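Usage

Read records sequentially. Each one opens with the input sequence:
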Amino acid sequence: MWERLSGLSRYIATPNLAKYRLFAWFDMRVCPDHQLIVFARDDDTMLGILHSRFHEAWSLRQGTDLVDRPRYTPTTTFETFPFPDGLTPDRPAADYGDDPRAVAIADAARRLVELRDRWLNPPDLVDWTQAHPKFPPQAVPRDDDAATELKRRTLTRLYNARPQWLADAHADLDAAVAAAYGWDAGISEDETLRRLLALNRERGA
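and closes with the structure output:
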């Protein structure tokens, strides 16, 4: 794994088991444990495609589960997922960096992450410190009240509440990914899965 991550500034990871299928950036100085599925990519376009409702629908249908928590199984979800043509994970990000579809997805993904990170660690509640150059910067609560509030700010609670700004950010991302496929942004989940399966079979033929 570390060989594949070599040279990257960050990597994408998602929990093996989770209520919500969320993808996030991890600093290269963070060592992932066995509960994380790691993707050796550092481009916003790839994060955006993985975090779209299209990949989520595919992963829920193709993956497994433990009681009420979906499990992300790379062999049946990531490896079988038909990415938009020309934006596939076997290509370096530099190959599609100027593709308008990739740029639109990257912009939407970057905006989603920025909004989410700002909610998790509001500037008025935290200061950032770095204990050692080998460790990533760490958010430190400014006072006890801030510490109490930050404990309530988790991604699970955020997605449980799903405020309008979060829904809008995901809608923008989904629209950009839909456009990369040449689909209407309002395509239904059933039609999405039908088309993804058709693409999967076409490319595997």
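Summary fields computed downstream for this record:
- The chain has eight helices and seven strands.
- The beta strands are 10-15, 24-27, 36-39, 64-66, 69-71, 126-129, 138-141.
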